[in-house]
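Q: My labmate handed me this sequence with no annotations at all. I'd like to see what the chain might look like in three dimensions before we decide whether it's worth expressing. Could you predict it?
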Amino acid sequence: MNFSSYRLVSTLLLAASLPSLAVSGDNVPTSRAGLPLEQTASRGIITRDPSTIVKCKGEFWVFYTGHGIPSFHSKDLVKWEPGPPVFLTAPQWIAAAVPENRDMNYWAPDVIHLGDQFLVYYAVSSFGKMTSAIGLATTPTLDPADPHYHWTDRGIVVQSREGGDFNAIDPSLFSDSNRSLWLAFGSYWSGIKLVQLDPKTGKQLNPDAPFSSLAYNKSIEASCLYKHNGYYYLFVNWGSCCRGVNSSYNIRVGRSRRVTGPYIDKDGVDMLKAGGTLFLSNKGPLFGPGHAGILIDKGKSWFTCDFEGDARMNGKATLAIMPLTWKSGWPEVNLVDQ
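A: Here is what I predict for the chain of 338 residues:
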């Protein structure tokens, strides 16, 4: 299927699945509460496990869980249109590495712009299993109309197997101020792990080096690292996902002076000992926030995630973008009640 056909089909499917959005006199979409969408959390599009939002040629892009790693793009963070998936056919290595994944349903991607390439990391697994792998695909541009647009499969970055103590899903990229590159990942079992990557290849810098352990809780996943005023901040999810408005997902945070930890919450509890200050939970018709990301654009800071269940959209997961502020060294979001 070419991009034009894919875009037409995706647009029709999207239009059929979304609730109606009001249009004001100046054609600015508004929420059901009558507020401009840029003043509210939900963006009115279905995206489970959204990536960090990145910019290419003046457009914002987000990737999310689904067949072949689907995408949306926007010029203003308000109106979003479906874009092409990363993969139209499954990378060859997946059949052998994760044989139970047969439907090209790839999870929780993350994206970073590094040098002259965009790198998308994604998880291949099956529900509740440790036979998992984080893969990498790269492209010089996200613009499908650009003649240089082409995704290249780079293979496995991290892999886990049954009988181990970690699960290689939920990749999250972090580029430090010294240009070092890091991958945080993990779900349940022994918690959140960290490995250093080679910025030139996107693969592990030292495949024989042990992973760093960052955080643990009985239910934990969907990590995200961010640096602010000399501190590294680690966001994680506690609770259960994928239950719509019954999701118990909530986002916790701690901070450290080193990227490898220890990460300590507001009460002084190590996140490796089930510490984590509550950062975001249910709000109004939005339930189960998860998969944190941070976007800085034109001097503004935005916190991005999904809400696992939006009561106005048949309980489906929707993309949320909220102003991010800092108070006494800790992050806060301004979530307008819709």
